[in-house]
Structure formats: structure tokens, C-alpha cells
């Protein structure tokens, strides 16, 4: 597959415009404010605080798309980071972003919970846009520098970048699940995607199972040799590992202790009618999140009298997402139908059973919601990590509250104090919700303490340093050289 590969070196642009540390992600850390404003706003999410420290400290560059279609550049700097815009046309947006990234890869990598769509044109757009990201990175990375590529939208970048700049150290981290071999093999462009990833020196995943899926696939499909943690391919060693992402825990703790945020949490409970129990779900409105089954489970609990709207309230925040995609449009209709049925059947005047907000929340409002909720219900059918679960835990500084968590979220491997559910099993989900609502205070505190220890110790900064430390240790050299300088991932059969 790799024979005869063209290695056209593309020298970095001269002078101070280059950096020895470059992040490449689909989106930049800023996005345009709502028109008619021409201003830029910081993008939400945990990646920005995690990487801004590393980038600012190393005068790094972030390569990505502003979220706006057309040729406008985002500002050249943001909070000490230098930004380099990749421009997307309407066609790129339709075929690369909505198409191949979100209608082919996204469902395929999430257990094919919706049928993935395969279109050759979409793949060609994906490859072309990946090439543009790689070219941008190649231009701003200084000689021998480090480039960290992120997520499923950019899986071909490592190989394309290595062809342009063989001097670079390249890391790749996948934020979403990596599917079992049987599913990945459906992809008509499976060789190209796999070869793209194998261009990196280190490929990181959220959980060990995903890393194992990848290594097995590489051995089966590309003839690579090696183990789960170290693959020999194309005369190079590629290290593979699990690096579970986390949140900026200290920031959530700080906001959760803020008197105004705490007052807002009390106000939310009062506005909800001071119920005995508030159950909360917060998700991007995505068909992978299992919101429908969660609402069905609580609907049955209202129907059998376990929950009563005078005492129990469900709040579901569904953050708008990918609204031009048909699957997302129909998921929204489907959810709104279910919510309105539950309320039609069970609400009292002035006391809805389910409060449904199709909105994004600012951080303080989100933290106030977490503080107002007795039980957080996180039930994705499949999720790379699920940071909402970690955010809730970080905010429960007094050890109150309980977490119901899908066993199919990456976070399940770490948050052992949760009440685990199979989101396909309505009976099991109902039981877990009731157990979480009625847990004895002592047991509840012990569970929360256990989870908080994990989230406070392993925050997003620890995640970034563990990945970058492993990348720095990756030599990329084949095992014969490892025999002289042994490394933890090296095996004896080379
Ligand atoms: O979880 C994967 C991810 O791409 C995140 O990085 C991002 O915050 C989220 O999905 C939303 O994605 P989009 O960029 O499509 O709005």
C-alpha cells in the first residue's frame, strides 16, 4: 500500500510564523458570533482550555476551521494561541463535514446506530479537505516540530502530513469510539483511512478497547506486525494507546462554589416547584445519546406511579447540533413527540413531567443545573467518553447527587461509583434510576467521593500531558533500533 509513495517535502514557511507545536482540529477555538455581529466568540468545550496552556506556553499554532463557510480568516491570535484558518466552501461543508464526517464515519463509529451512508464524492471531498489541513500544518510547523491531529474528521492528515514533512513528530487522538473490525470493514475506503492513521507516530484512543480494535484491524488489513501498543508498518513503529480525555475539573469546582451560581441553582429548583427529586439529562441533540430511551424509561415510571409530577421533575437539555442533517432533524422531531406525549399523559397544570430545553447553556447556567439536579442521567448508546458525566461529578463538591451512566460511554471505565445501565434495556434503566434516587446518603456519598477523586486527579491537563509525553517518547524508529534503546511498547519478535 505504501510502496512508491511520493514524498514531496514541503518546507515550512520561514521566520517566526512557524512553531514547534501545532494542533490540528476540525474547528478552531473561536467561532463567529450570531450575525449581524462580525465578532468572534470562544468555542465551548474542554479541548480549548486543555490545549491553550500548552499552545500558549510553546507559542503554538492551532490549525482549524472557523465554522463559517467562505474565505474569511478567524483572528490571528486567541488567548495567547496563534490561529491558522482552513477555509471550507459550501461544497466542502456538505460533502466533507455533513457528508463523510457526520453521515458516514459518525454513525459507523458509533455501532452503526444509524445506517452509515457511503458516497464516493463525499470520500473525495474528505481526502481533499484533509490534504488542505495537512498542507496548512506543514507550512506552520517548524523543522522537527510536533503536530497533534484531532478526531475523526481528520484521519487522513497524519499520512498526508508525513508525506509533506517527514521530519515532524505526529500524534493523532480520536475523540469518538473506534469500531470493532467487523464494522470498520464495511467502509469502502478502509485502506485509505487506516493508512492515514498509520502515518502518525502515536495513535491515541479514549479506552483500551478502542486501541485494541485499531491494532487488530491494522494487523488484519495492512499486514502490520506488532502488539496492541506497538505496530510495525512501512518501516516505522507506531505506538498505540488509551488516553481517556477529561475536563478542566478545577474550573468546574470553582464555578460550582461561586455564590451566584449556587443561588441560581436554588432558583432553578424553586422555579421547578421545589420538587423532592430533580432528574437531569444534558446532551447534544444526537441520536447516539439515547435521549429517547431515557425519556421512555421515565415515562413508564410516571405511568406506574413511581414518579409523580408533584414530587419528581425531569429536565432534559438538548443542545442543537448538526441541524442540516436529516438524521438529526428526524431525531429532534422524534424526541419532541415523546416529550409532548409524556407531558400530555402525566403533567399537572403548572407542573410538567419533563422540562425540555432545546438550547445551549452558558457555563454558569450549566453548572447551576448540575447543582440543582439530584440525579444526572447519561445514557448514550455509544459514546467516546461523555464529559457531561465528568462535569456533573466535578460540580458535586458536597458529595451529594448520583450518576446514572451508560455502560457504553467511555466514562464508564473510570466513574465506578455510577449506577450503570444498558440504555437498550428499559427495565434495567428504570431500576437504576430508582436506585439512584433512593440511594442511602452514606452509600451515595461514598460513590460520589470515589468518582470525584478520579475526575479531580485525572483532569484535562493530565490528559494532554500524558498524550504529549507518550508522543515525545515515540521514536517512530523500527524495532531493530528499539532493541538498542528498549521502550515499554516494544516487543521481542522483530
Ligand atoms: O465528540 C466529537 C465532536 O466532534 C466534538 O469534538 C465536538 O464538540 C462535537 O462532536 C460537536 O461536533 P461538531 O463540530 O460537528 O459540531
Largest sheet properties: 10 strands, mixed
Beta-strand content estimate: 15-25%
Spans of at least 5 consecutive residues with low confidence: 1-9, 480-494
Number of strands: 18
Strand order of the largest sheet: 5-6-4-1-7-8-9-12-11-10
- Helix % is 40-55%
Principal-axis shape: globular
CATH arch. level architecture of the largest domain: 3-Layer(aba) Sandwich
Name of the CATH homologous superfamily of the largest domain: Glycogen Phosphorylase B
The number of helical elements comes to 17
- Rg over C-alpha atoms, rounded to the nearest angstrom: 23 Å
Which kinds of small molecule does this entry bind, naming each only once?
6-O-phosphono-beta-D-fructofuranose
* Overall tally of domains: 2
Question: The CATH topology of the largest domain is what?
Answer: Rossmann fold
Distance between the termini: 21 Å
The overall pLDDT average reads: 92
Structural class, please? Answer: alpha/beta
